[in-house]
Design a protein that fits this description.
With about 325 residues, the chain is an alpha/beta fold. The protein folds into two domains: about 200 residues, DHBP synthase (Alpha-Beta Complex); about 90 residues, Rossmann fold, CATH 3.40.50. It is built from ten helices and 14 strands. The strands form two sheets. The protein has a ten-stranded mixed beta sheet, sandwiched between helices. A four-stranded parallel beta sheet has the order 11-14-12-13, sandwiched between helices. It is globular. The structure holds threonylcarbamoyladenylate and magnesium ion (MG). Magnesium ion binds next to loops.
Amino acid sequence: MTILTGNTNEIIEQARSKLCAGELVAIPTETVYGLGGNIAIDNAIKKIYELKNRPNNHPLIIHIASAEDLYIYATQIPKYVEILAKKFWPGPLTFILPKSDKVSLLVTGCQNTVAIRMPNHELALELIKAVGHPLAAPSANKFMSISPTRPEHVIAEFNNAVDVIDGGICNIGIESTIIDATSLDYYKVLRPGIISVEDLNEALDNKYSDKLVIDKNDIIAPGSHKKHYSPQKKLIRFNSKEELDSLLDKYNNVYIIHYSDFVLLDKELSYQISSNPYEFAKDLYHALRLGDNSFSETIAIEFPPNESKYSAIIDRLKRSIGS
Ligand code: TXA
Ligand code: MG
């Protein structure tokens, strides 16, 4: 595995030629790094499933570089999708829509719907344009583990198996909001993200009000599990200094991720994360990886308050913990 370097044109050209030859390249996006493959090459899509150890009925998101391409790869596009795409693309919002015949069943895990988004990252957009086809890109991690938000995280996941484009630290840090847009009249949030239900409803003047937020994101996506986004070590939550103290009595060597200004004795085994929800999201997976790489036996994380601005973070943490 190499980190592709050089000037932007050279990086794009190296990555383009690999993707057009059916090889995979890990690509930066504003949410997390994706394991990119050319949707026009079946063998590339098979490699994605193999490398991730992902069940092949678990569908992939395709990434486009121009909003109009939505009409090429999806059909029966509701008015509210047009409004939302105009407002939030390029950005961390994915639509599930009926697929067109330009998208193979291999990409969609045999479903007749496709997940589609336009990422907000210059390198990703340039690369997709250069390839001339959308890139299927699940998060560039092994199945069930934590999504990578830095190039070195991708290297830690896949060793020598794939080249990575260094696009720096992902700005958003958690995966896109996914909405089911297969009804013309209303949408459903399948996976919460930085773009919240409130943001969506506001953009739509509350006309297509969300009927249902599915807490377990993957209900209509087969082959998925409640426990996901998990560090390798046991992850425990705490809500107060008292709860932390009792954890410290119970476990040896706990790596503590916290946002409150607790006085901690062992700086090596702690990490202070911001309480700002955007910064918290951006840093969350990195902090969990630091915990995994430390000599601790367990990781404890201070849970954010149960407020809507933290809902995507709480969703990921609940899945990481598996409850
Ligand atoms: O931010 C993101 O969305 C990142 C970046 C790389 O774009 N990608 C990402 O992909 O998180 P992945 O594969 O790790 O998660 C995609 C989720 C999966 O839970 C999958 O089941 C669901 O989207 N999904 C994909 N296609 C679907 C479909 N046709 N119907 C229902 N769910 C679908
Ligand atoms: Mg993933």
